[in-house]
């Protein structure tokens, strides 16, 4: 018991001693002036066809997978009703699972690619608007969990400017810095 107490006391003493000699790495905060803006990412995504299309693609992919899982389950039930051997049903189940997993992976890649393209375009539009308006910081207003009143009172709402930057006419020469639309197919192929 005494040994445990001494060991604990020794560790605490060393810790306290080191805390007293540890250098301070943080520099004192200096007041600075920052011009910031905010926008509504949800509204921008709804207003931007590629972002809305990536959400529709995600829903289509989920529905496609659900149909394929249901089809696979029906095939397995039919095999069991037809009194197929257990090892044949298990082999069929494994093959169906591999097929579903491969399809799921391909659909996830497709949806992620489409979403990434839309997100890159939104990011480019946000950066362009921030530069045009001389903003130092831009936040998604919906993601501010505290201090939102300060953001609204002291920041600039640039949602409309971002939406305009993403409009098709912004694609015209000299009309904006938006990347070319994706050539990714809009929907998975049905079986």
Q: Overview of this structure, please?
A:
With 191 residues, this protein is mainly α. Helix content is 64%, strand content 5%. It is built from six helices and three strands. α2 (41-47) runs parallel beside α6 and α3 (49-81) runs antiparallel to α4. 15% of the residues are buried.
Rg over alpha carbons: 28 Å
Largest sheet: 3 strands, parallel
What letter string, H or E per element, gives the SSE order? Answer: HEHHHEHEH
| CATH architecture heading | 2-Layer Sandwich
**Helical segment count:** 6
Number of strands: 3
Distance between the termini: 73 Å
> Unreliable runs, pLDDT <50, ≥5 residues?
1-16, 171-191
Strand order of the largest sheet: 2-1-3
Mean pLDDT: 77
Q: How would you describe this structure in keywords?
A:
64% helix; Protein Binding, DinI Protein, Chain A; disordered N terminus; three-stranded parallel beta sheet; single chain; 191 residues; mainly alpha; disordered C terminus
């Amino acid at each position: 018991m005494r040994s445990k107490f001494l060991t604990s006391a020794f560790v605490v003493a060393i810790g306290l001693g080191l805390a007293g000699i540890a250098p301070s790495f943080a520099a004192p905060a200096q007041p600075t002036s920052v011009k910031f803006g905010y926008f509504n990412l949800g509204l921008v995504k709804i207003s931007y066809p590629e972002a809305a299309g990536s959400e529709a693609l995600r829903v289509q992919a989920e529905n496609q997978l659900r149909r394929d899982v249901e089809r696979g389950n029906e095939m397995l039930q039919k095999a069991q009703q037809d009194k197929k051997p257990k090892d044949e049903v298990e082999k069929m189940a494994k093959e169906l699972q591999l097929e579903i997993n491969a399809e799921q992976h391909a659909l996830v890649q497709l949806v992620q690619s489409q979403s990434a393209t839309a997100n890159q375009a939104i990011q480019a539009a946000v950066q362009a608007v921030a530069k045009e308006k001389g903003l130092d910081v831009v936040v998604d207003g919906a993601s501010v969990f505290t201090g939102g009143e300060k953001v609204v009172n002291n920041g600039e709402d640039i949602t409309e400017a971002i939406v305009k930057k993403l409009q098709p006419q912004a694609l015209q020469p000299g009309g904006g810095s938006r990347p070319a639309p994706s050539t990714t197919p809009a929907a998975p192929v049905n079986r």
